[in-house]
Design brief:
With about 170 residues, this protein is mainly α. Helices cover about 45% and strands about 5% of the residues.
């Protein structure tokens, strides 16, 4: 089983928003941080907002934030909303008589139990549990640039890089 890129991006967006509960984050900021296309993220963000995970604030100083506390957003719940098909084998769809083993298949039963165990583990996790242990992991790219500018030596131009030296 492999999660879709959509689900991966959804979890990344929510984890980033959870790491910045004190401010709004922007799609541009998320795209830069994760090195992901803005158009892909826009679709993901729209889905997460429609599901009630994100709140979108419009306007010049707008952005995104979690719609509820990180402790109240379950990872399993998010994945169920973003994955269209979590069935491991086609006979999970029900009513599919293509497999001759379907009436008494132990493999399907075991796979079904394994899938339930997978989601049980994810249901026990919240976004709060996924907060990074590295304190500066989620420092936005925009803020990293500002901190580098503040470290410039006196008299150096922060808006222009130093001239290239010829050999």
């Amino acid at each position: 089983m492999r999660l879709t890129q959509f689900s991966d991006y959804a979890l990344r967006v929510l984890m980033y928003a959870a790491a910045h509960p004190d401010r709004l984050v922007t799609i541009t900021e998320l795209a830069g941080f994760h090195r992901i296309s803005r158009s892909h993220l826009t679709k993901v963000v729209m889905h997460l907002a429609s599901c009630g995970y994100l709140q979108s604030v419009r306007g010049r100083r707008g952005g995104l934030r979690l719609a509820r506390a990180a402790e109240l957003i379950g990872v399993g719940e998010v994945l169920r909303s973003t994955e269209e098909d979590v069935d491991l084998v086609e006979c999970f769809h029900g009513g599919n008589a293509a497999c001759v083993l379907a009436p008494d298949c132990r493999l399907a039963q075991e796979l079904h139990e394994a899938l339930n165990a997978f989601f049980s583990k994810l249901d026990a996790l919240t976004l709060a549990d996924l907060r990074p242990t590295t304190r500066n992991l989620y420092v936005p790219i925009l803020l990293q640039g500002q901190s580098q500018k503040s470290k410039s030596p006196p008299g150096a131009s922060a808006s222009r890089p130093p001239p290239l030296r010829r050999r």
